[in-house]
Amino acid sequence: MELFHLRYFMTVAKYENFSKAAEELYISQPSISKAVLSLEKELDVPLFQRRGKRVQLNEAGMALKRKLEPIMSILDNLSKDLKVVAGHSRSTIVFNVLAASSLLPDILLRFKNIHPFIDFQIIQSARTTKCDLCLRSALPGSPPENGRLILSEEILLAVPMQSHLALKDSVRLEELRDENFIMLGKRASMREIADHIFESAGFTPHASFESDNPSTIRGLVAAGLGVSLWPEATWGKLATDKAKLIHLSDPVCHRNIYITSDDRDQLSDQTRLFIDFLTDYFRTLLAAY
User: Fold this and answer.
1) Residues 181, 254 within the same domain
2) Gap between the Cα atoms of 101 and 235, Å rounded
3) What is the residue range of 67's domain?
4) Is 173 found in the same domain as 254?
5) Given CB 3.0 to 4.6 Å as the disulfide criterion, which of 89, 136, 200, 274 pairs with 98?
6) What is the pTM of this model?
């Protein structure tokens, strides 16, 4: 099995179009078509459904793409990783995490599996600028300086199953004036976004409980002690049958997650690797919802 056959397959899978894949790879369309056909013959299974000039991954193709993604990522970054090893034994990224902190263990585990020689110093402080990268949230239309948007997620409402709201699939924000809310602490960036959302709706919610831990908030909602705003992708599923998530309308609520740095022109190769990894990680996370 030739490596270039796999790379050609991944590029076609990316665009689901032979012409666009050929343009990216700077080869002719017949060449890339021949390579994919050769790979299918070797694997003895079709990988695409052909529909004229366009193609679509079938189940076998999607399975192969999932298996190849981490392998191709390692190969693509092999040269940079070896330079890190050759230059010095380890490299450290100072990472300030102000959003999506519950995902941090999974993010670092996956990244370290690919780049074991890159270490991290984790901080969580909105007051410091002494870091290589910062993961932060912001309202749509309010991007931070030197930021790359890596996720735009819907903000849902978590409600206990015994609540009258649990009978609905969506609720207008205006209808929540008299509800007891479980809120994040005032220092959390998500709290600032929540306050802005309620201000735009013309009321201040009654905060019956405050917590900085999404797991605690989930437990309090499940216990029937109130409702809470719930970022869909970064906070994940409720993982309980005692509460459910419903959509908010008028307005539909969103927040954006950015990766920022003080000087994008002075980033190390290792930091750029991590930015690219985060971009792919959150793209995959959003696709799951």
Assistant:
1) yes
2) 9
3) 3-76
4) yes
5) 136
6) 0.66
